[in-house]
Amino acid sequence: MRTSDLAPGCSPCDQQATSPRPPREEVLATNHWRVAHAFNSALPGWLILLPTRHIAYFAELTAAEAQELGGVIRRLSAALEVVTGCVKTYLMQFSEAEGFGHLHLHLVPRSPTEPREAMGPAVFTYLTSEQAQWILAEELAEIANSIRAAIP
Ligand SMILES: [Zn+2]
Fold first, then answer.
1. Which CATH number characterizes residue 132's domain?
2. pLDDT tens per residue, the chain (152 residues)?
3. pTM for the whole structure
4. Rounded to the nearest whole angstrom, what is the distance from the C-alpha of residue 30 to the centroid of ligand 1?
5. Range of the domain at 52
6. Name one GO biological process term (predicted).
7. Which SS3 state, helix, strand or coil, does residue 83 take?
8. What is the CA(3)–ligand 1 centre distance, in A?
9. 117 C-alpha to center of ligand 1: Å?
10. How many domains does the chain have?
11. Distance from the alpha carbon of residue 6 to the mean position of ligand 1, in angstroms
12. Contact yes or no for 28/35 (Cβ under 8 A)
């Protein structure tokens, strides 16, 4: 990783430059992708897939980065099924929030008992700025470790 590929002050880039990273920041690390558990989620298993260099949109991905992504999604989805008992995973990408322009994909487990009002795009109700609803740091570390251990 060349530091020139990172954007100083960008949170995912700053984490990429950090070593060692906390468990929730490194559920999976491949050649081109790093996977973190969302820090601001009320839902266990809410994963964020991040390119290891600063990219703002899909068209900037190299062929190698794009090719690796499919396998990462498949492997993480299998791990989420084992750890959370989800029936499917949702995959979303916007990268529109202020300060979060670094391309990132949300990979989210959908529970068999998901309430109708939290299905589809409404699943974003689980991402919240209300810290009282966030999963506690120790629990996040345990969830991240469980998912990592279940990745095929
Ligand atoms: Zn960045």
1. 3.30.428.10
2. 566 799 999 999 999 999 999 999 999 999 999 999 999 999 999 999 999 999 999 999 999 999 999 999 999 999 999 999 999 999 999 999 888 899 999 999 999 999 999 999 999 999 998 999 999 999 999 999 999 999 99
3. 0.95
4. 17
5. 3-150
6. nucleotide metabolic process
7. helix
8. 11
9. 33
10. 1
11. 6
12. yes
